[in-house]
Amino acid sequence: MSDDFDVNTVREALRVEREETVALIEQMASRLDAVIEATADSSSDDEHDPEGSTLAVERGHLVAQLERSRVRLDELDAALIRAESGDYGICEICGEQISAARLEALPAARLCITCATRYPTRRW
């Protein structure tokens, strides 16, 4: 890790973001449970609900959001490990320093902008 990063500040920022992500996952899981319960309690024909989206659509959105949040949690955990080992802020492909602006916007970034552009199918 370069001198541009204060490891304690990085760790704290990652921990705060991790706590927020865990809280979001818990909130969405509760909402999903409520939607599943509502589906069980209502008739199976919710497609004609004049109030808006169907329960099935809402359930699908929640499942997708939960999956993205769980991936985010995994990435934050990996970033915390990199911070502990001294590899935080180093691109996993080219070994160059990841810009401070990129890390500020995406603290769990594994790749520099150049490599992220070259390999868009890789995570961050």
Short description:
With 124 residues, this protein is mostly helical.
Q: If you average the pLDDT, what whole number results? A: 86
Our estimate of the beta-strand percent is under 5%
Backbone structural class: mainly alpha
Series of secondary-structure elements, N-terminal to C-terminal = HHHH
> Radius of gyration, Cα only, in angstroms?
19 Å
The end-to-end span amounts to 18 Å
Estimated helix fraction: 55-70%
Largest sheet: none
Q: How many helix segments?
A: 4
Which runs of at least 5 residues are low in confidence (pLDDT < 50)?
Answer: none
- Tertiary shape: elongated
Number of strands: 0
Zinc finger (dksA C4-type): 91-115
Region (Disordered): 38-57
Protein name: TraR/DksA C4-type zinc finger protein
Pfam families: zf-dskA_traR (PF01258)
Give a topology summary.
Blueprint (H helix, E strand, L loop, with lengths): L6 H35 L13 H31 L14 H6 L7 H6 L6
Keywords: Metal-binding, Zinc, Zinc-finger
Organism: Gordonia sesuvii
Protein name: TraR/DksA C4-type zinc finger protein
Protein traits:
124 residues; mainly alpha; 4 helices; elongated; zinc; TraR/DksA C4-type zinc finger protein; Znf_DskA_TraR
Structural write-up:
With 124 residues, the chain is mainly alpha-helical. The protein has a domain at 7-87. It has helices at residues 7-41, 55-85, 100-105, 113-118. This is TraR/DksA C4-type zinc finger protein. Residues 38-57 are annotated as: Disordered. Residues 86-119 form the Zinc finger DksA/TraR C4-type domain. A zinc finger (dksA C4-type) spans 91-115. Pfam families: zf-dskA_traR.
